């Protein structure tokens, strides 16, 4: 796998995981 | 309005909305599209599409839905009527009834295949089967009779799936859809994790899992200059988020007036993307790379969404002796993903019958069940004539964009963006960044119209989609009687071999078109170890025999590298083949008539309901 492939994969997946964490924390903050 | 249902809990709503969005497309269509459109580079137009129109459309759909719900409307005729006030609005809203119902006619059938394959996996039914033939015969597309004698088995699974769907709809929003999502979504994640671990730990055969991941993520930036890549990415974002069906609007209509929708919409998209980009790229394609080798992935991905899921995935799992456990899990995963989507897509129609026609839950579900069965029967039995693809193109592809383009213009320019923005933020747990205000107002409508134009140009004008064409298929009939395997591969497109093969098939298609009916041939052929093919005898329709005589048929098989092999070694053999020339035209037109008739029926129902309502209100005044 090329460096470009790794970068695209890690950045894309990282962004999506971060977005999910953001949503979860916002929901939890409201519930608290 | 007090008798309208609401979601039981916020987590239930989020699960149901995620179930709405997560479907077969996440696990099969996304990796297929990425593999065909520049690998890792595909993610760039994909994420751009997500930001430029998918997220705005998500927020619009949720806002339109909650707004309509405040007035007791769960479907778009009522919602658009409230927002626009023009007498045409309710008729435009009929798109949000006809499109989802037509979509359900064929999507439930695909859902039923997954249920069927879960059963075949659990019972080890395809232990030695040739998987492409197994699938084609299961669907009745190919009548070579090795494993199934028609689509009756598939029809049985469709009936089971339909009953399950109608039962969930009948139980209602909180006790049906929400309960299903609370079970199915956690299960779906567990299944995804199990399969990811299984695939990631597969030992290499012809390739490694890393080969598959590399194939999906290594970027081919030259593809970014191809408008087709951008259209494919935009299309994928549409399908995956269930935009343009009226289903998101319907779910939002059951949200209370001051409950959040902005964060819920974002969470739905985030969860969907998690399954799509992460699990979607770590299961099916890496598994195919292990078993088939990296050089075959392009062909597998190019042969269609279902080939990845129903052919290459079971073949890989079979190679590791784990059909009964992992095969069953794989197909149950696809089934649950589809199940939570199909109930969601049909719910607007259910809501329409309940909210507008004032039918009881039982009557509404029963009526939908009748429509659903009647609409599904031709999908099953005319599938070989391209019936399903026809519905998918007009309703499930173009229809979604037309609906969305209208909805964004309604929201941003007729209802007015400022009012819409305020509506979106009432009770919201986040503030949507201001830039989306401008994107929604200016960029999204233009982007949607460009996509619509691109598809019409590509498929309708260049692809000449309006004119149905016959097809000619060649299939082996005696696969079950031999120890080895009959193999063939199509010549590479653009080569003289491909052109010659194309010309032979074109002669067959011309004969079918001239005759105006299906034409069939049966033949016995002899193959030699060095690649020769000799047609020993051929019988069937004289019109087809004149167009495709024995020597031409033999040449076609040679060009397709047709041979018999045992354990990878070519051996001389005999084979019985069937050549089916299918006269698709009448069936394609039946599909079109059904779509138009359904839309007209809904238009008339809307007219009657609104006139009766106006008369009642006039009388009361």
Describe the structure.
The complex is a heterodimer of chains A (32) and B (621). By secondary structure, chain A is mainly α. Chain A has one helix at residues 3-31. Chain A starts with a helix and ends with a helix. Chain B is an alpha+beta fold. Helix content of chain B is 68%, strand content 7%. Chain B has a four-stranded antiparallel beta sheet with strand order 1-7-3-4. Chain B has a three-stranded antiparallel beta sheet with strand order 2-5-6, with no helix packed on it. In chain B, helix 3 (43-70) packs parallel to helix 11 (227-241) and helix 3 crosses helix 21. The longest helix of chain B is centred in the C-terminal third of the chain and has 36 residues, at 585-620. Chain B is globular and about 85 Å long. The mean pLDDT of chain B is 93. At the A-B interface, helix 1 of A face helix 10 and helix 13 of B.
- Helical element count of chain A? 1
Tell how many strands the DSSP assignment of chain A holds. Answer: 0
Q: Tell me, what's the shape of chain A?
A: rod-shaped
Number of helices of chain B: 25
Report strand % of chain B. 5-15%
**What is the total tally of β strands of chain B?**
7
Q: Which structural category do the helix and sheet elements of chain B fall into? A: alpha+beta
How far the N terminus sits from the C terminus of chain A, by CA atoms, comes to 44 Å
Query: What is the structural class of chain A?
Result: mainly alpha
Strand order of the largest sheet of chain B: 1-7-3-4
Low-confidence stretches of chain B: none
Unreliably modeled segments of chain A: none
> What gap, in angstroms, lies between the N and C termini of chain B?
20 Å
- String of helices and strands of chain A: H
Chain-averaged pLDDT of chain A: 91
> Major beta sheet of chain B, specifics?
4 strands, antiparallel
Q: What is the helical fraction of chain A, as a range of percent?
A: over 70%
